[in-house]
From TrEMBL:
Transmembrane regions: none
Pfam families to which the protein is assigned, alphabetical: DUF952
Protein name: DUF952 domain-containing protein
Stored Gene3D superfamilies: Protein of unknown function DUF952 (3.20.170.20)
Amino acid sequence: MNTTIYKIVPVLLWQEARRVGQFAGAPVDLADGFIHFSTRDQVMETAARHFEGQTDLLIVAVNAAALGEKLVYEPSRGGALFPHLYAPLPLDAVLWEKPLPVGADGLHVFPELAP
């Protein structure tokens, strides 16, 4: 599967994760019982569907291989396989975090993403 997966997260929530040393998930993750991630091919649609117009977001790149068997690819939107983590995200699996600003067209402006 994909070697890098992505999480869109509000800045304040990520700052709290940094403070405590792991990311337990956003409210939707906690309600669903797993942390939602996207692949490179999915993350822009995820942003458009679930974060439209939201500012103060980060995109976090994660080394999928570092997550072990707790990372499961499961069918979701249209049958596509989405990465779901059934554990808190250890911060040592994070490759980088970058701002995810909204452009003049109202869409998020993504940095270059690895496959």
